[in-house]
Amino acid sequence: MSYLLQPHANDCEPNNSSKILPTISEFHTTFDVEAMKSIETGEANQEEGVFLTWKDLWVTVSNGKNGRKPILEGVKGYAKPGQLLAIMGPSGCGKSTLLDALAGRLSSKIKQTGNILINGHKQALAYGTSAYVTEDDTILTTLTVGEAVYYSAQLQLPDSMSKSEKKDRADFTIREMGLQDAVDTRIGGCGSKGISGGQKRRVSICIEILTRPKLLFLDEPTSGLDSAASYYVMSRISSLNQKDGIQRTIIASIHQPSNEVFQLFHNLCLLSSGKTVYFGPVSAANKFFSSNGFPCPSLQNPSDHFVKTVNKDFVQDTEKGLAGGLSTEESIHILAKLYDSSEINHQVEKEIAQIIERDSVSMVNGSHANFYTQCLILTRRSFLNMYREVGYYWLRLLIYGALALSLGTMFFDIGSSSESIQARGSLLVFVVTFLTFITVGGFPSFVEDMKVKVAFK
Fold first, then answer.
1. CB of 330 within 8 A of CB of 310?
2. pTM of the model
3. Are 85 and 32 found together in one domain?
4. Which residues cross the membrane (predicted)?
């Protein structure tokens, strides 16, 4: 039973591992170990956090004349304060859909059924208590790290806080994510050098945790990052609770974590074609696969093995499972069926029931800056963005100056005859037409601002 007492799932089972199913006491030990890990990392005061549960969750989309197509099929699970939950699976398995469903971000065209409870109640996520970090880093590239975070602090934090308090909150958040050395460096983008991809991801996280949310959603937080940057980003996220004392519930959809990143998570939700193949402690996942005939090969990352086993998108070599050679679809079906009847699934259902029954308070909406303050801050940020954008501001100013000089030279001293009246009319028509069409040049900047608004609304 010593395998379950290990906090990390980095020891792969050899191919000739035993196929004896884990005992009930072993699974109880696993859940006890995960609880002890939470306490050891300063997570004992869980009543202060947000408990999230979902059960029999179905998500379907219209499939034309063929009815509706399911994306998620009766999934269940939970997320507790002070713990990190990893949602994994092959591409198209429903990871981002599950994350969006839990965060209340699904489109109105998508139908959702089932129960999603926050602290045991069916309620909407309150402003300031939850945050969602998108896969793409949507940040104004002309701003520095400090400016991006500080402007967001002025917009998101309430007017009851003074400017100095907002500045202190922004500085503290920057230090939380280890960005103090890059505070005066511009974000950068296409055609302009700036901070690295890992730093951009941490800036996005900084902006979202300014309100001190107790529930944090992350969509592919390590996408596009190398192994070292991925680990640094996730380790910073996992250590947030120790730095500000807030018992955060963190849920992340992640595609291909390294072994070190995988060890940072407490629980794993493994999906395949919208179905749950495994939900439970990370430390028990490897034994679950091994005991059911799908052992992880030696020297292979367990997370890679799990995803490979349930990925039916490509033609693979048959797995040597319970009955010899099996196709991937057969392997998925066997694992899902065995999980449904496993003791660890019963423990998950018991955990969900206990979370629903516990006494919890409803979430209270926070406040942000008023409309006047937001308009003032956004105008100031827009002017700074245009001032630093050479192609948008200075080049257009040069064109306007050259055009004004040319028109002034052409229509200089035209007299006061009847022909001059017609010439002045032509000049006015040209100027009005030019100003009308030149405003199209501001459309790219508008689109950029709209992306930022949608990402951080």
1. no
2. 0.79
3. yes
4. 393-415, 427-447
